[in-house]
């Protein structure tokens, strides 16, 4: 980014940074597409069509070699505005249509379960009221008068139904966090138990009360009260099975990301495999650093470069027996390649030196920009209230002074695809509004944060697939291994049971700590 770049070109639509011309811009876009054609595994990934998000600050060319850039890069760059171009293959379109069909099936299954639960809940709450009202409607003249005890039971039924309604709302009517592949076994068992319970009560009510037209109205009300009491006990059972049973830690799971080997440990209680996978994913978005495929590209290219240096030629022709010479040549080439660790060492050292250098430049540039903000705030206090600058305008005013240093640092650390220009401006205005320091502003960019810190368009992991040899509705057991797969990587989860701890007590006699100090005085003779 040049020093003469004005504010309008800085905050224009989807910005692509080029060297000197539109031809270089098209070549950069071709380089951006090239890794997908070279790597076969990358070409098989699915594509999701969404509204185009804001372009990253430095473009999305993650495969461009940073090693080839010097410290003076960006002095003559030009900002070219325009609309981005995206292309997808016929295979991607077919995969997208399949994903849409799967999502429609998941939505139907979820709404079907919610509908069944809502209908059953409505039946449960209306049943005690119907038990009390039906005799009043059908044979009111034949009923015995309701005394004081009977009228008191009306108040009991009303308050118990209110308590049951609040408890049911708090336990069951919550926003679902995920779509699980199988039904929740305990919840399904509770629904079946409630249905059988209410059906048996209706069956007894129809045979013994409706058919015989029982005139003991107080007994009928007492029957409805017993139903409500039983429903309260079932609600208590649901709390124990759905909430309290899983609180005590029983297993320790190790979660390893397949691409870079980052791992975490978590403690879980008695859960099914699918619900344990849900807990793992919730903790993944919070604890694991964001997945950055650009960091893996450099290591793959380095390994390919080392393997490409090994060449064997058979100069004697296919008919001659030159296997001994071939083995000797391979051994000699392998000995020459043993020095590759030195290249790796110096390459990593040079990268760390370049990161530290550009980090220092970024810190200095941000501190100077925030110092300028303080001067502007001091000047704004002397102006009229209507002429004061809002945080968004202040962020746009100081952003060009730090943009070049931030640009080069993000490219060096390969984070440019996670930070768009608009997100940086929003974060900068947020820091200015809350009077935060330069170190607080840089915390997001100096250290890669968890996945939740970034926009959903940069996550690389939105839809997961659970792979397990055991049934996903079965409970966790010692030694169970299951895999959570997404588009570009997977999480391997290994379950270990917390060992039984035997703790013994050893008694120490308090008198054993006492001692007597005897002093022998020496006198001169």
Topology of helices and strands:
Blueprint: H1 7-10, E1 14-18, H2 22-38, H3 40-43, E2 78-82, H4 90-138, H5 148-171, H6 185-210, H7 217-244, E3 251-257, E4 263-268, H8 273-287, H9 293-308, H10 323-337, H11 340-380, H12 391-412, H13 421-433, H14 438-446, E5 465-468, E6 481-485, E7 490-497
Helix pairs in contact: 4-6, 4-7, 5-7, 6-7, 11-12, 11-14, 12-13
In short:
The chain is of the alpha+beta class and 525 residues long.
Please characterize this protein's 3D structure:
This protein is an alpha+beta fold. Among the domains are: 150 residues, no CATH class; 82 residues, Tumour Suppressor Smad4 (Sandwich), CATH 2.60.200; 121 residues, no CATH class. The chain is 54% helix and 8% strand. The protein contains 14 helices and seven strands. The strands form two sheets. Strands 4-3-7-6-5 form a five-stranded antiparallel beta sheet, covered by helices on one side. Strands 1-2 form a two-stranded antiparallel sheet. A hairpin with a 4-residue loop joins strand 6 and strand 7. The longest helix is centred in the first third of the chain and has 49 residues. It is extended and about 100 Å long. The N terminus is likely disordered.
Which terms would index this structure?
single chain; 525 residues; alpha+beta; Tumour Suppressor Smad4; five-stranded antiparallel β-sheet; 14 helices; 7 strands; 54% helix; disordered N terminus; transmembrane; cell membrane; VANG1 protein; VANGL
